[in-house]
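User: Please predict structures.

Assistant: First:
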Amino acid sequence: MMVSRRIGAPAGDIFRILADPGRHPDLDGSGMLRAGVSDAVVSGVGDVFVMRMYYERYGDYEMDNHIVEYEPDRRIGWEPRPGRGHPDATVPGAAWGHRWIFDLLPDGAGATVVTEIFDGSRMPENRRTEVDSGRAWWQTQMDRTLERLAELCAAR
């Protein structure tokens, strides 16, 4: 599933926000992200950033986000895995296999088309079915995320 939005900012400015986990709660449209555990900016594939999260069913927990795609000013993606406090953290193979990807395509002077992608192609069938049943909710949250990203860029 994916959503796109044209944002009035250069791709490099947008990428810097996306590569900084400390900024993610500011752009999160779901309301689940609370804070980054560390303040290290992502610098390449293999980096891991940890986010504090809240979901009513689980309460407070962490997700360990493994960078799987990194092309400066063009594309960044991570694969979340259950972390501290998540009920699946100690279950072998509990990672869902989904990825969050942001694709940036320059669109004229000072503008970029940003596409947020939820890639569930590696997820087990039962998890894919669960996500598909909430597709409208996910799409709304992704739209909100891109709206917030545009607001952050406008405020710079």
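Second:
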Amino acid sequence: MIPQDAPAAPPAVEPEVEAAVRRLATLEFSWDIEKALEFALFRTYAVPEISGLLARTGEFARRPRKRYDDTALIIAEIGENGLDSARGAAAVARMNAMHGRYRIANAEMLYVLTTFVCEPIRWLERHGRRPMTEAERRAWFEHHRALGARMGIEDIPGSLEETLRWNAAYEAGRFRFAQTNREVADRTVDLLLGFYLPRPLIPLGRPVVRALMDPPLLAAMGFAPAPGWLQRLVAGGLALRARVLRRLGPRRTPRLLTRAKRPTYPEGYRIEELGTFR
């Protein structure tokens, strides 16, 4: 007999939902969703309570690349293998163990989750070769709603429309400048640019990243807007890329982030060793 006060089991995830998320993230929009999730995490640094906790851990100062890789791998393990697969469940458990070390408000956890829902949808509407279909949007939402339940997050909105509204309202009320926002943002921008540019050229790439940021995000980070001509150039370049991709069609071979070569783990990794520990 199950005790009456036992926590409810998380909702099951339909196989069609997991298959749709896997297809979106590894075939249809592999690069786009990877970039959108990077910006999703970046947006969370505009909330001082979140950036302050991240700054106190010291991870961004000591080993930013490892923190990036660990986060990317945990998310990829869940998306590529499914929430309730052995590897997906292990990744969720590792994430919960890390979060359990800190006192994190439910609203902050919920906001991070909603960015993972909203930003890929918005990115593809602005920059993708096509937006997600209605069925894809629903699958993306249901996957992350189930993930939030497995993370113990409460008061998750019951629909995608409510999630989009909640996310926008939270940002409007909680985005504000703090020095920790800027510190974490600066390290993250330089890390991401380092994937594409040699170190001496990283300063030249910083305005390009700012060209992709909206005014509330720029203000919360203490960043000056990119010049108007650069904003138009970046938007035009992404629009040209989208037109080319529409002609080429989706990938035929899955791009699996869990298989990507990473200097942090030259010999491979084990899920239970990812992230931070006491």
